[in-house]
Design a protein that fits this description.
The protein has 453 residues and is mainly α. The chain has one domain: Orthogonal Bundle (Hydantoin permease). Helix content is 73%, strand content 0%. It is globular, with a radius of gyration of 22 Å.
Length: 453
C-alpha cells in the first residue's frame, strides 16, 4: 500500500490498526479544545459585554461542557465500534448520495474556523515579532501559518496525534501561567459579580453557545474515535471524552472569563499582551495561542473537510488538505472574529449541525440499535440498503429540516432545540418507514398509465 493511501483514508479502521492509546487520546483533546476561540465564547457572555454575571457564566459553562461530553461519547460509537469516519457514517441516516448534504454542512464551518485559527495564529506571531523585533507582516504570517498547519497534517492521524499529544502539556502550562499572571496583576471588578444577570433565556442561550462552539467536533467525533484503542472496550471512549474534553474545555472557558472581567478587551490576543508584565513574557504567553491554534486546526478544522473532499471529489488526503487550506484563506476571517459576527456565526451553523447530530444519534441508537451493515455503507450503488430513495433518505432529510426549522426562529437556543427535535422526528419517521412509503408512492405514480391522452 502506498504512503499516500495510508496517510488517512475513508476505509474502516480495523481493531488491529488502532494506533491511538488512551494516553494520547486525552491530551489530543486537551490540545484541540484549549483554543483562543473558546476564550471568546465566555468573553462575549459576561457583563458588560453580555447579560450574565460571574456565577451564571460558570454554571452554564459546566452544564454546556457536560452535555458536550455526553454527545462526544454517544456519537463517537460508530467510529469506535465500526471504524468508520464521519463522511461515511452519515450514509446510514441520509443515504448514499444524501450524505453529501450533512458532510458539507460540517465542512463549511470547519473551513471558516480554520481561517479564523490561522488569522489568530498570525496575529499572535505578528504581535511577538513587532514587539520584540520591530517588524512584522500579518498577511505573510497568515499564509505561512496556514501552510505550517497543512504540513503538520500531511501524514494523517499519526502526525496529528503526536503533535497534539506533545503540545498539550506545553499549552496547559503556558495557559496556567497566563491565568496566574492575570490573577496576580489584575484586579477583578465587582460589577460582573454583583450584576443581577439572568437565569432565563440568556442563561440557556449561553449553554447553547458553549455547546455550539464544539458541536462541530461532536458531529465528526468518529473521525478520531475510529483510531482509539479498544482494549478496555467502551470504557476507553467514556474515559477519553470525560477526561479529555470536559476539564480542558471548562478550563478554557474560565480563562476566557477571567480575561474578560479583568481587561474588558474583546480580542484575546491583545488581552494577553495587555496583562503581560513585560514584552518578553507577553511573547511567551502568546506562544500558547500559536500552539493552541495549530493543535485545534489539525483535529477540528483540517481533518473533517479533507475527509469530505476525499469522499465527494475522490481526491487523495494530501490534495484534500490543499483544497481545505486554500479555501480557508478565502473566508475573510478577520471580518468574522468580532463579538457580533462570531456569536451569530456559532448560532447559525449550530442550528444546522445540532439537528444532524440528533438524526445520527436516533439512527444509530434507536433505529439500528448499534447494528450497521458496513458492507452496504461502503456500497455506493443502488444495491446498497442505504440507497433509500434514489440515494437519499427522505427520513433523514425531513428530520434535519424539522430540527433546523425550529432552531432558526430562536437562534439564541439553536441546537438546544433542534437536536432533540430532529432526534424525535427521525425516530418516529423511521418507525413508520417513510422511505419505503415514498419509494412505493413514486413507483406507483411512474407505472400508472396517464389518462386523457
Amino acid at each position: 500500500m502506498s504512503e499516500e493511501s495510508t496517510a488517512e483514508d475513508l476505509s474502516p479502521t480495523s481493531f488491529d490498526d488502532r494506533t491511538m492509546e488512551l494516553s494520547q487520546y486525552i491530551p489530543l483533546w486537551w490540545a484541540a479544545v484549549i483554543v483562543v476561540q473558546s476564550m471568546a465564547v465566555a468573553f462575549f457572555a459576561i457583563y458588560p459585554q453580555g447579560e450574565l454575571n460571574l456565577l451564571q457564566v460558570i454554571v452554564a459553562s459546566l452544564i454546556g461542557t457536560l452535555i458536550l461530553g455526553l454527545l462526544f461519547f454517544l456519537n463517537g460509537f460508530p467510529g469506535f465500534e465500526e471504524g468508520v469516519p464521519f463522511a461515511v457514517q452519515t450514509r446510514s441516516a441520509f443515504g448514499i448520495r444524501g450524505a453529501i448534504i450533512p458532510n458539507y454542512l460540517r465542512a463549511i464551518p470547519a473551513i471558516i474556523y480554520l481561517g479564523i485559527g490561522n488569522w489568530i495564529g498570525a496575529l499572535a506571531i505578528n504581535t511577538i515579532t513587532t514587539t520584540l523585533l520591530g517588524f512584522g507582516d500579518l498577511r505573510i504570517y497568515f499564509v505561512l501559518f496556514g501552510v505550517l498547519n497543512l504540513l503538520l497534517a500531511w501524514y494523517g492521524i499519526d502526525s496529528i496525534k503526536w503533535f497534539d499529544s506533545l503540545s498539550a502539556i506545553v499549552i496547559i502550562v503556558l495557559l496556567a501561567y497566563t491565568g496566574y499572571v492575570v490573577l496576580t496583576t489584575q484586579q477583578i471588578p465587582t460589577e460582573p459579580i454583583t450584576y443581577a444577570g439572568s437565569w432565563g433565556l440568556p442563561f440557556v442561550g449561553f449553554i447553547a453557545a458553549v455547546g455550539g462552539q464544539l458541536i462541530t467536533a461532536a458531529l465528526n467525533i468518529s473521525d478520531i474515535t475510529r483510531h482509539l484503542n479498544t482494549d478496555r472496550g467502551s470504557l476507553n471512549l467514556a474515559a477519553g471524552n470525560l477526561l479529555g474534553l470536559v476539564p480542558a474545555y471548562l478550563f478554557m472557558l474560565l480563562i476566557g472569563l477571567l480575561f474578560s472581567v479583568t481587561t474588558g478587551i474583546t480580542n484575546p490576543v491583545r488581552a494577553i499582551m495587555a496583562v503581560a508584565p513585560n514584552p518578553a513574557l507577553g511573547a511567551a504567553m502568546l506562544l500558547f495561542a500559536i500552539l493552541a491554534q495549530i493543535s485545534t486546526n489539525l483535529v477540528n478544522n483540517l481533518l473533517p473537510p479533507t475527509h469530505v473532499f476525499q469522499d465527494s471529489l475522490g481526491v487523495t488526503w494530501k490534495r484534500g488538505l490543499i483544497i481545505t487550506t486554500v479555501l480557508s484563506f478565502l473566508c475573510f476571517p478577520w471580518l468574522l472574529f468580532t463579538s457580533a459576527f462570531f456569536s451569530t456565526f456559532i448560532q447559525i451553523y449550530s442550528a444546522f449541525l445540532g439537528p444532524i447530530v440528533g438524526v445520527l444519534l436516533a439512527d444509530y441508537w434507536v433505529t439500528r440499535q448499534r447494528d450497521t451493515d458496513i458492507d452496504s455503507l461502503y456500497n455506493r450503488s443502488s444495491d446498497s440498503k442505504f440507497w433509500f430513495v434514489r440515494g437519499f433518505s427522505v427520513t433523514g432529510m425531513v428530520s434535519m429540516l424539522i430540527g433546523v426549522g425550529v432552531s432558526l426562529p430562536i437562534l439564541d437556543l439553536s441546537w438546544v432545540i433542534g437536536l432533540p427535535t430532529a432526534f424525535v422526528a427521525y425516530a418516529v419517521l423511521a418507525r413508520v418507514d417513510l422511505n419505503r412509503y415514498v419509494v412505493e408512492s413514486t413507483s406507483t405514480q411512474s407505472t400508472r398509465s396517464p389518462e386523457g391522452d
